[in-house]
Amino acid sequence: MNHLTWALATAAVFSGNARANTVPQFAERDASASAQSPPFYPSPWMNPKATDWESAYEQAKAFVSQMTLMEKVNLTTGVGWEGEQCVGNVGAVPRLGLKSLCMQDSPVGVRDADFVSVFTSGQTVAATFDRQLLYARGLAMGQEHRGKGVTVQLGPVAGPLGRAPEGGRNWEGFSPDPVLTGVSMAETIRGIQDAGVIACAKHLIGNEQEHFRQAPEAVGYGYNITESVSSNIDDKTMHELYLWPFADAVRAGVGSVMCSYNQVNNSYACQNSKLLNGYLKGELGFQGMVMSDWAAQHAGVSSALAGLDMAMPGDTSFNSGFAFWGPNLTLSVINGTLPEWRIDDMAMRIMAAFFKVGNKIGEQVTTNFASWTTDTYGPVHYAAGKGYQKINEHVDVRAGHGTLIREIAAKGTVLLKNTNKALPLNKPRFLAVIGDDAGSNPAGPNGCSDRGCNNGTLGMAWGSGSANFPYLVTPDAALQAKALSDGSVYQSILANNQLDATKALVSQDGVTAVVFVNADSGEGYISVDGNEGDRNNLTLWRNGDNLIKKVSSWCNNTIVVIHSTGAVIVDKWYSSPNVTAILWAGIPGQESGNSITDVLYGKVNPAARTPFTWGNSRESYGTDLLYKPNGDIPQVDFTEGSFIDYRHFDQANTSLAYEFGYGLSYTTFSYSNLHVTKKRAAVYQPTTGKTITAPTIAKTKPSTNLNDYIFPDAKFPYIWQYIYPYFNTTSSGKEASQDPYYGEPNSAYLPENATNGCAQPLHAAGDKVAPGGNSALYDVLYTVTAQVKNTGSVTGDEVPQLYVSLGGPGDPPKVLRGFDRLRDLAPGQTGTFEVNLTRRDLSNWDTASQNWVISDCPKTIYVGPSSRKLPLKATLA
Ligand code: BGC
């Protein structure tokens, strides 16, 4: 049999270990080369008593105990790129009635499918500051994934967090503030998982830029690098900033986590034992499975020992036909390199996540779409062109979610400026709408694959985080319909470059001009207008700044609407008196035009808050991306620590255009009666004790007879490039592996303790049973209330915010710790804002004790409508 060769794959299995936790040596390197990731072994196994996982554990155990070694390998290793219908699939276990698990993007809807909805970006829903809407969006997205037969929805996103505004994928996440992102993660995850779909918190961690995230991609762009960029993050910053929202995700019971492409402190995220074993599974007590980003796995056994549970999409690189796992994982268990408890734990984690969200064997929804074609019939094994059958059922799963999407995009639209009562519009006599961003893409809403272009209105940014529109309501279409029903005159010029015609239109008497502009970004595998995922600058695209300057010089009632993936520099025009209103409408999804019309005409009274800072220059952010490699393994030192976004602007006391948390309403609010109540809470106890010993789940030992693992020719045909758990030869382990170094001394270096299955000490900042860290971190120490009164003349929502100054010399002046969206306050009505401040909210990460500690420094709290408007203040006793 000559189906496969495994030379490449096995070499990596047995040499990859060394790579997991050593610093690669190379010539050009600055001081940052010293960033190292300490080893953390063994990989923590599941805890049968983990809160909310007990029943899932029992069900998983009953299932996994019946599995053969090859079935377990099949469950952990993807079938290869385009091997089945989803962007990722693992092998089925037909003997036990388990169909292949389907992993599918995206964080805004079901990617690569028809008859699905396209929701707002994460960043846009974050701007609502509304937990109910965050949950509702998650639930609706989960239901659509479920209806299509998806097992794991690949979202939500907390990495990138948004270290720098240029980051190409910031819009997929929520906000550079870890608390807003953490709440958004938790609500979205609950929603998705309540629909019976496993959520995937991604990308762990430090994936803050697209440039150099993967060496082959960067080489394709002409950069000379050999390995992925290393995000060098210290332990304190990790805890206080980047890991924080992942802790919330774990606490919310997320079933899966995706490790990222980049290296963290010079160790690849998907084989970084400190990250996966130490922080995630050890300290945070994560019970679900870790899957690799697509082709982010770089080694075999070492990635398994470092805590990876599922290899996606399964091949070493797209369509290589080789695998780091698959047959090599089988062999590594038989020859004793990988302990049996580890493969059992991998299978347990996958199956526990499966059962936790309510799945039952025999009741899985069959995947009824194909990611690679909209044809009804086609090859189910797309890469190989094999298995011709019906692959697209075209099931409509939208269930009227358009109404919710319209509401979220409207309630996520931030009113940044409103003068001369420009808004809300009230039957304007003459409405002129200007700009490419108000119209449609001539190629249609899905005209560019994965939205990889910026033509027409920006309803969705680009990359794997997108989905195919069922329709896209343009601002032009919706505003025209509204204007006509009001009897207004309506004319639009859907281009940025028709300046003569634009001047003639908007300089007419009494015209209200609405200018639509945008700035786009996306994932690194697509470059748009020279932006290789990340934005090259923070200016508006297609000469948008010039368009605004021109229109506002001709028309004294110019309203600007911005669709963007983050902040843009507005300082050249935002203070002009002729620019009477400015709105940030984020990345709104399919209902774009309807949502903006609802806000412009006051059907929805805006209350959204900007989830990031609008600086006056690019430099004012204090952080930027690396655009040119600084070595063959690019290094990015996160030397700013947790001083990103508003924390930096506050510390530097820099002027800015719009601060984090800022947003206007058509009414006004007053804040009063701040009240702080100290709660009784026990003294914080670091967790002590040990885990159980690594459990033996399998009922029988796997055979060591290589003949038992040979490809079963008689049973089914071999599919080209498909990743199987079987061997193609059995004469010896060396031959099966095709590794020239197989069996030689040092060919299988194993990090110290990596195979130790004895009981292990629990992490002091972790918990005996509760996922998300020591449960005492979530004890409420203070309850804070304030009164918020609608002092204007129309009903509206208000978003009060609570900030804390932790008071230490290294602390940001203030950090967000609580917020709410008080809904529908009528004129004169008062609402109560209440925040429970937890121990975690008031603590710093102490690297010496490896725990959270409340410092002796005085703690002050501030309450108000934005990060720079905080009328109420109190000191905590
Ligand atoms: C992206 C992930 C995505 C995966 C599968 C990767 O390139 O980074 O976010 O889930 O592809 O499409």
Automatic annotation (TrEMBL):
It catalyses: Hydrolysis of terminal, non-reducing beta-D-glucosyl residues with release of beta-D-glucose. Pathway: Glycan metabolism; cellulose degradation. Keywords: Carbohydrate metabolism, Glycoprotein, Glycosidase, Hydrolase, Polysaccharide degradation, Signal. One of its GO terms (molecular function) is beta-glucosidase activity. GO terms for biological process: glucan catabolic process. Residues 1-20 form the signal peptide. It holds the Pfam family Glyco_hydro_3_C. Residues 798-867 form the Fibronectin type III-like domain. Its EC number is 3.2.1.21. Belongs to the glycosyl hydrolase 3 family. PANTHER family: BETA-GLUCOSIDASE, BETA-GLUCOSIDASE A-RELATED. This is Beta-glucosidase cel3A. It comes from Ophiostoma piceae (strain UAMH 11346) (Sap stain fungus). The lineage of its organism: Eukaryota, Fungi, Dikarya, Ascomycota, Pezizomycotina.
